[in-house]
Write a structure and sequence with these properties.
0% strand; 97 residues; flat
Length: 97
């Protein structure tokens, strides 16, 4: 009786391991996909939004140089992301199917 239970449990365990191995292989294949939006946004940040990036960097340096400050760079971050999104939007939608 115990050997039958052991055999059933071991067969269930080995079948679940093979299913997990197949799922991992599928996940590895999916990792090869590259989002074109990332490259487009990086290009916009480097080429088009340099003024907003400079303001953000200056704010970060200013905030990090102070030990006690309530200043954040929230406005600068929003301006930078708005610039990047605005620049990249038309190119990104060319890749949408």
């Amino acid at each position: 009786m115990a050997s039958e239970i052991f055999d059933k449990l071991s067969s269930m365990f080995s079948s679940s391991v093979s299913v997990k191995a197949e799922e991992e292989e599928e996940e590895e294949e999916e990792e090869d996909l590259v989002d074109p939006a990332t490259a487009i946004k990086e290009a916009c940040a480097e080429n088009h939004c340099t003024a907003a990036k400079a303001k953000l960097d200056a704010c970060n340096e200013r905030v990090q140089s102070k030990s006690k400050t309530t200043e954040t760079c929230f406005e600068e971050i929003l301006d930078f992301y708005h610039c990047v999104d605005h620049c990249a939007a038309s190119d990104i939608f060319k890749h949408v199917k």
